[in-house]
């Protein structure tokens, strides 16, 4: 499965502080000899009509790895969490005339090639990835049309992805194995390397 999904903007969420990793850009750390972001982009590119990175600070640090890819700053100050990146993605999608936003954290590089297709088929109106019975709320497909509701919710302090998603209806879509393995801390990088070496 795969193929370009018309109407979908893929957004890599890379706007956090990465405290457990010791700061910096987790998605620029090497994995299998290349930046994690390259590994992830290779998987996402065929699944979306357009691509963006959600990150704060100087956007030029992504230019070598992702030339020409727009870097979307959070629409709210103070690192309010992944929902800020979802909102930035929704606004950008709307400006491009795209209907849906697929978000994936930049520290979750081994996502399946049928991610967009299966989430799109299930969305009601949001669809969220799951594995081993556990939801991964930042890996999700969101209608850009919910952006004003999300903006209003965030203005009143909403910061939890799963709570806001559940309010609108969020369909979990289960994958076998652990394709949403991520790197929160330095010791997680070895597990990702091993999964990649196994052909994940
Ligand atoms: N745009 C945006 N993305 C964020 C923000 N906070 C977290 N994220 C992203 O959301 C995903 C999950 O974030 P977390 O693991 O909770 O936070 P983190 O910054 O990556 O790491 P910790 O500081 O160690 O918790 C990651 O891809 C982050 O880059 C934010 O304030 N804005």
Largest sheet: 7 strands, mixed
CATH superfamily: Spore Coat Polysaccharide Biosynthesis Protein SpsA, Chain A
Basic shape: globular
Rounded to an integer in angstroms, the radius of gyration calculated over CA atoms is: 15 Å
- Uncertain segments are none
Q: What percent of the residues sit in helical stretches (DSSP H or I)?
A: 25-40%
Bound molecule kinds, no repeats: guanosine-5'-triphosphate
| CATH A-level architecture | Alpha-Beta Complex
Return the average pLDDT rounded to an integer: 95
CATH class: Alpha Beta
Question: Order of strands across the widest beta sheet?
Answer: 5-4-1-6-8-7-9
Which secondary structure elements does this structure contain, and how are they paired or packed?
Blueprint: E1 8-13, E2 30-31, E3 34-35, H1 36-44, E4 50-54, E5 71-72, H2 82-96, E6 100-105, H3 115-122, E7 126-131, E8 134-143, H4 147-155, H5 161-168, E9 170-175, H6 188-197
Parallel strand pairs: 1-4, 1-6, 4-5, 7-9
Antiparallel strand pairs: 2-3, 6-8, 7-8
Helix pairs in contact: 2-4
């Amino acid at each position: 499965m795969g193929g370009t999904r018309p109407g979908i903007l893929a957004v890599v969420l890379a706007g956090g502080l990465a405290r457990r990793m010791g700061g910096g850009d987790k998605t620029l750390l090497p994995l299998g000899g290349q930046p994690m972001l390259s590994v992830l982009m290779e998987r996402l590119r065929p699944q979306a009509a357009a691509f963006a990175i959600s990150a704060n600070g100087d956007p030029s640090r992504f230019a070598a790895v992702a030339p020409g890819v727009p870097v979307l700053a959070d629409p709210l100050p103070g690192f309010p969490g992944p929902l800020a990146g979802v909102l930035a993605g929704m606004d950008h999608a709307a400006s491009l005339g795209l209907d849906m936003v697929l978000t994936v954290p930049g520290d979750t590089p081994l996502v399946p090639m049928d991610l967009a297709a299966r989430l799109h088929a299930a969305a009601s109106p949001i669809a969220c990835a799951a594995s081993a019975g556990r939801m991964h709320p930042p890996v999700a497909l969101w209608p850009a049309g919910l952006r004003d509701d999300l903006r209003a919710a965030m203005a009143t302090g909403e910061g939890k992805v799963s709570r806001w998603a559940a309010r609108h209806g969020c369909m979990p879509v289960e994958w076998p194995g652990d394709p949403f393995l991520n790197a929160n801390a330095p010791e997680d990088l070895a597990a990702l390397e091993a999964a990649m070496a196994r052909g994940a």
